[in-house]
Amino acid sequence: MTALAFGILLMAVAGIGSAIGMSKAANAALGVKAEKGKECPNLAIYVLMPFSQTLYGLVLLAMAVFLFSDKFPTDPVGITITMISAVFAGACIGTSALTQGAVGARACDAIGKTGHGKGEAIMFMGTIETVALFMMVMFIVGMFILL
Predict the structure, then answer these.
(1) DSSP states of the chain as a string?
(2) Which fold has domain 2-146?
(3) For 68, what's the count of Cα atoms within 13 Å in the CB-facing half-sphere?
């Protein structure tokens, strides 16, 4: 039960960041669409990129439940530490999504105004994505070592 609670908590915090990040980028993309009309470039990638962090949370949830559920602590101190680590891991992944959405929003604005910068925007957003990937990998390694 601790593994499921851990995974749900981690995924929920990561998902909140993804939702906020996508909403920031979507608001900007819709503004560009309203301004440009049919000449609007495709901005979906900038809106959808923060969603991947929710998937990272799902991977960690699945690993916790299916690989480590029998190894999670059952004592109150161990459970508390585990849940705090879930919040911090989810916050790191979610913050990556949130900031990625903010960069995506600015990218939508810039691309809508100039038509340039698509490659650079994806590169910047990909760099932010790397933070979430590293956090996920680090947490997976930590689960194998600690549990």
Answers:
(1) -HHHHHHHHHHHHHHHHHHHHHHHHHHHHHHHHHHHGGG----HHHHHGGGHHHHHHHHHHHHHHHTSGGGS--SHHHHHHHHHHHHHHHHHHHHHHHHHHHHHHHHHHHHHHHS--HHHHHHHHHHHHHHHHHHHHHHHHHHHHH-
(2) Four Helix Bundle (Hemerythrin (Met), subunit A) (1.20.120)
(3) 25
Q: Which tens digits make up the pLDDT trace of 22-65?
A: 999 999 999 999 998 878 889 999 999 999 999 999 999 999 99
CA distances from 11 to 18, 53, 77, 123 (A): 10, 9, 22, 25
Give this prediction's pTM. 0.91
**CA 101/CA 46 separation, integer angstroms:** 7
Domain ranges of the chain: 2-146
Tokens of 56: 């990272």
What is the Cα 74 distance to its own chain's centre?
A: 29
